Amino acid sequence: MSQQSLAAGNLLGAARWRRGLGAPVRGGREFAGRMAALGFTLGVNVTVIRRLDGGPLIVEVRDTRVALGHDEADLVFVEGGQRPRESPSRP
């Protein structure tokens, strides 16, 4: 599968099917702890599955899909990453 490198940024600005590595979470201690409990830790693979205006952002982290509101997605960052040319299939 051919891939294209992407710059770092937050999940809110990420395109669909973007894959990146988890980076530090912004926000308060309580929010950072909740995100860590959901699997958002440094270096973990994060993939944006669905991004719709006005709706939640669906991401996959540690083989689990998580829905994040826009305010939450704005505080979660990914570094580097790649975008597959073909969308991955899921059984």
CATH class: Mainly Beta
Helix content: 10-25%
Distance between the termini: 18 Å
Please, how many domains? 1
Please give the largest β-sheet. Answer: 7 strands, antiparallel
Identify low-pLDDT runs: 1-6
Describe what you observe in this structure.
This protein has a single domain (3-84), classed as SH3 type barrels. The chain is of the alpha+beta class. It has 2 helices and 7 strands; from the N terminus they run βββαβββαβ. A hairpin with a 2-residue loop joins strand 5 (57-61) and strand 6 (64-68). The longest helix has 10 residues, at 29-38. The protein has helices at residues 29-38, 70-73, and strands at residues 3-5, 9-10, 19-22, 45-51, 57-61, 64-68, 77-84. Strands 1, 2, 3, 4, 5, 6 and 7 form a 7-stranded antiparallel beta sheet that branches.
Short description:
Helices cover 15% and strands 37% of the residues. It is an alpha+beta fold and 91 residues long.
Present the secondary structure layout.
Layout: E1 3-5, E2 9-10, E3 19-22, H1 29-38, E4 45-51, E5 57-61, E6 64-68, H2 70-73, E7 77-84
Antiparallel strand pairs: 1-7, 2-7, 3-4, 3-7, 4-5, 5-6
